[in-house]
Amino acid sequence: VWYNDFFSAQTLAVLPYEQYLKRFPAYLQQLTMESNGKHVTLEGEPVGCDTGPVYWGEPGTNGQHSFYQLIHQGTRLIPCDFIAFVETLNPLGRHHDMLLANVFAQTEALAWGKTAEEVKAEGTPDWLVPHRVFEGNRPSNMLLLERLTPAALGTLVALYEHSVFTQGAIWHIDSFDQWGVELGKVLAQRIIPELESKTEPQLGHDSSTNELIRRYRLRKASDLIR
């Protein structure tokens, strides 16, 4: 609520440093966005603020080599939830220490960044200094659990469920209906017989949808002829 409504942060990144949680951000998308993606209050009036930020994410070991660049130095404010565990389920030399060092380094870098003076002190050429400056002051949470167990996973789920409920109460919306998923399903039931019809159907959609249906039927017919 704080960063969504007062800092215009439209997304939130969930970054587990545990490969077994690689689909956890996708689960949170369903939990949070289906629950709080609403534009009217409990009384049916338009809400007066932004609701339902976009949740997304990947295991941190993947994200560090792709979208972390935007989180650190981009123009968009993206709050982050980092998730890590003290004990690994797969002990392998010093790998877990290296993994945890990386996640702790990310939260530190987001918080404090790197000033131009620090960059210059490393002997960086003047022309390159602006490119290596990190502004810092990027918000993040660090969720450090003991070990990934069923109880720990349940704790994480409960944490985000309570967060969704609290957000819905503050925004005065109904977090427990999902009318937004219905329209597409209803329209699909109209389109299915039009795609399967043996004769040319009378289409009553918008021009774009009508053309998509005709194109699909044409390609489907040509494939059947082959």
Keywords:
single chain, 2 domains, 4-stranded parallel beta sheet, 226 residues, alpha/beta, 9 helices, Rossmann fold
User: What is the arithmetic mean of pLDDT?
Assistant: 96
How many distinct domains? Answer: 2
Highest CATH level, the class of the largest domain: Alpha Beta
Largest beta-sheet details: 4 strands, parallel
* CATH superfamily caption of the largest domain: Glucose-6-phosphate isomerase like protein, domain 1
Q: In order across it, which strands form the biggest sheet?
A: 2-1-3-4
From the structure provided, what is the oligomeric state, counting identical versus distinct chains? single chain
Question: What overall geometry do the principal axes of the alpha carbons give?
Answer: extended
CATH architecture assignment name of the largest domain: 3-Layer(aba) Sandwich
Would you tell me the structural class of the helices and strands? alpha/beta
The unreliable regions are: none
**Total beta strand runs:** 4
Radius of gyration: 24 Å
Q: What is the CA–CA distance across the termini? A: 56 Å
